[in-house]
# Entry
Amino acid sequence: MNIVKSTLAVLTAALLLSACASGESKDKESTTESAENTASETAESTQTASSEPEKLPETDEEWHQAMIDRSLTSFGDVSKMQEKLKAAQNGEKLNISYLGGSITEGMTVAPGNPELCWANLTYEHIRDTFGTGGNVTYNNAGIAGTPSKLGVIRLQRDVLSTDPDICFVEFAVNDGNDNDYQMAYESILRDLIERDVAVVLVFSVTESGHSCQEYMQAQGEYYGLPMISYRDALQFMFDNGKMTWRDFSDDQSHPNEAGHALVAEMINNYFDKVMEQTPEEHTYPAEPMTELWYDGVVMYDNTSVTPESLGSWETGSETAHFTDGWTHYFDANSNEPAVFKFRGKFVYMLYHEVSTDTRGRLHIKITADGEVYDEMDFDPVDPSGWGNCQVKLLALNPVMTDYEIEVSMAEGDEGKTFNILGWGVTQSE
# Structure
């Protein structure tokens, strides 16, 4: 019995019904005299505004400062950040984590000079400004090719396990605008906030203008989070002919050395001002903005789960940062399936994605609570693949379910390789 379609239909319907809108109206009272005065004042102000265009900066220094100011989208609710920074000033530990993709990892500068990455530069600024010695520590959990739907699966392994006090989140260029990205992004935010972490959102952009800032900013406002947008800052300079993309980047996506320094300056501007701000009361929303398909997700690899049967697979994988998976090699003597068992609601497979047919198709058979749930052939080849870790949703149920997942090479691809890098299983009740 195949139950994929019915389950998807139920969850999709729930998503479509979850949208809401709110409005606000205010009653106004006025006398005829005040109305006339208001009309007169409005006319005068309109005439003045039309005759006096917005005053732009004049000197290079003023333009630069205007760009830095433009990057500060919101201070958010400053109380949590002030609490963390005051504790650091008093000698308590302050662990700063950075979760994101290659921009956070520091591609183009970090391989040879990790100290030039914006993440490290901001860590050093916070350490030197608020630290009292060795009490401020640094954890860069940026991994190239990571969208939020992979970031949420590795959140526990790469961030929460280090007991962070502050966490920067940067996924604006690696994400799409589909619901699964939005749900994953919100799950990250809620998981961090509920663990008393001060969260800072960073909004990036590519040369073509791609950025998911709109939905990320909406979530940031909903949760009262500080937000820094180098997308907005750069666009301000581009629109006024004061910078080009090549001043910031040597490719289509990643900051160059000067770009990393500029992003760090924008973020440091927030930390230079945050302690002066007056806290405003903000209540943590009990209800999420999206359906949280990734809520309570746990990542499994060969260090945390043992297959019921290994078959013709071998333990280990060779993808950067994901070496504890399972591999079926092209020269395996047979095509015996590996069998995994999990208990949860949703099941995700992490796999090695490529752009050519150097990897073969995987045959997957899924049983849910003793009934056949789905059976498919899955191809890890995608034009955008480059040897990165990618995520595939395999099964979803609204209640806790006992899954058995059997994997072998698809017919005709028995002589090819496939890398399973891990599993993600949601286990929240």
Remarks:
- The chain has 13 helices and 14 strands.
